[in-house]
Write a structure and sequence with these properties.
The chain has helices at residues 6-12, 15-21; strands at residues 41-45, 51-54, 58-59, 67-68, 77-82, 89-94, 100-105, 115-118, 123-127. It is mostly beta strands. A 6-stranded antiparallel beta sheet has the order 3-4-8-7-6-5, with no helix packed on it. Strands 2-1-9 form a 3-stranded antiparallel beta sheet, with no helix packed on it. Pfam families: SelR.
Length: 128
């Protein structure tokens, strides 16, 4: 995939999507379209369309953001150290377009013990 310039991203993303996906902002908790979403299907990157998470891996974490216990494949996301806001976290990035998706934590349910806490603005949904 050819990389887009920031000006090109601004043309294809909404201002809120741009803030989250490209500027690494976080949407307010419980504000996202997919927090309570229960349909069966695949969640994709809203910037490039890459398939990221299956609805089967989604769970209610009570945190206010869509949460998943695993991506479709480890190759679909990249993990990067995030030391912003004087915290140490692991950022989740789309492996194809390098857009910010959210963060992953080690307090999720079995079998993985992971909680991929993802911004709704970073996702689109394809119904099965």
């Amino acid at each position: 995939m050819q990389e887009k310039s920031e000006e090109e991203w601004k043309k294809v993303l909404t201002p809120d999507q741009y803030d989250v996906l490209r500027r690494k902002k976080t949407e307010p908790p419980f504000s996202g379209e997919y927090v309570d979403h229960k349909e069966k299907g695949i969640y994709t990157c809203s910037a490039c369309g890459q398939e990221l998470f299956d609805s089967e891996s989604k769970f209610d974490s009570g945190t206010g953001w869509p949460s998943f216990n695993a991506p479709l494949s480890e190759k679909k996301v990249s993990l990067e150290e995030d030391t912003s806001y004087m915290m140490r976290r692991t950022e989740v990035v789309c492996s194809r377009c390098k857009s910010h998706l959210g963060h992953v934590f080690d307090d999720g349910p079995p079998p993985t013990g992971k909680r991929y806490c993802i911004n709704s603005l970073s996702l689109d949904f394809k119904k099965k």
